[in-house]
Amino acid sequence: MLAIQAAILGLVQGLAEFIPISSSAHLVIVPWLFGWTDPVLRGLTFDVALHIGTLIALIVFFASDWARLIVAFFKSIGERKIGDDPDRKMVWLLIVACIPGGIAGVAFESKISDLFHPGGAISGAAMLWMALIIALLGGLLLLSDSLGKRNVPFGKIGWKEAITIGLAQALAIFPGVSRSGSTITAGLAIGLERPAAARFSFLLGAPIIAGAGVKSLLELVKGAKSGAIPHSELVLFPIGLVFAAVSGWFCIKFLLTFLQKHSTKVFVWYRWALAVFVAIVAIARGI
């Protein structure tokens, strides 16, 4: 049963990480709804597996992009200039945009985590706050998609757009905001085309996810050497990784295709329905 739960949460991670509906919220909501209390599912090992899984999805899907960007990065370092090369410009836009999210993650992520589920448990009051955040971000996404000019293609993204989206990514430390949700919302608000906003969001997510994954992986290695990581956690590692990677790859492909002809309103309706549902369940169970 634990393996099935791990597979479901891997699927949830891959789906919700890239669609703007918040993976962090869903990874709390699903176990909360079904009463999955095994600490292994909240353990460091499983967290690393999910991070690596979604990172693999990003690396594989955008493999050709990463190859060009890596070459462009080293050329810009070697020649000490960006010039007119769009790949050199893009790689430095991504680096600059990562800074706010990286700082926010290091400084506040553990504090936010303790606030929402101290001691590993999550209260009804915290779920109500999460429902409110889910709904508010949905409203901002709707406004951005409806009022944004959507006339800036991917190749025309500049420093202003990159910094704005990077600042928005920092808000993703709050469960319910969604990293892709906040960055796509910001991109649409400042005039990016829908596919451009999603593509920049996905590329921007890789360094952040990699950073979080490496940090957790180092802690995992340390725990494994000391014997603090139980065997039951290691068994679930490949399950979470594979399901997160496969579902994540398909989700990236789906959203980039979907946004070429459709708005983000369906995700707004989903967020609002989810927020209402979570609030009702929290109240029914007693706050």
How is this structure best summarized?
The chain has helices spanning 2-18, 23-34, 44-61, 63-79, 86-116, 124-147, 159-169, 179-189, 194-226, 231-258, 265-285.
Summarize the structure in words:
- The chain has 287 residues and is mostly helical.
- The chain has one domain (2-285).
- The chain contains eleven helices and no strands.
- α4 (63-79) crosses α5 (86-116) and α5 (86-116) crosses α9 (194-226).
- The protein is globular.
- The mean pLDDT is 90.
Question: What descriptors fit this protein?
Answer:
287 residues; globular; 0% strand; mainly alpha; 11 helices
Overall mean confidence score, pLDDT: 90
For the record, the count of structural domains works out to 1
What structural class do helix, strand and pairing data support? mainly alpha
Tally the helices: 11
Distance between the termini: 29 Å
Helix content: over 70%
Radius of gyration, whole Å: 19 Å
How many DSSP-defined strands?
Answer: 0
Proportion of residues in β-strands: under 5%
Low-confidence stretches: none
The helix/strand order is: HHHHHHHHHHH
Note the main sheet. Answer: none
Task: State the shape.
Answer: globular
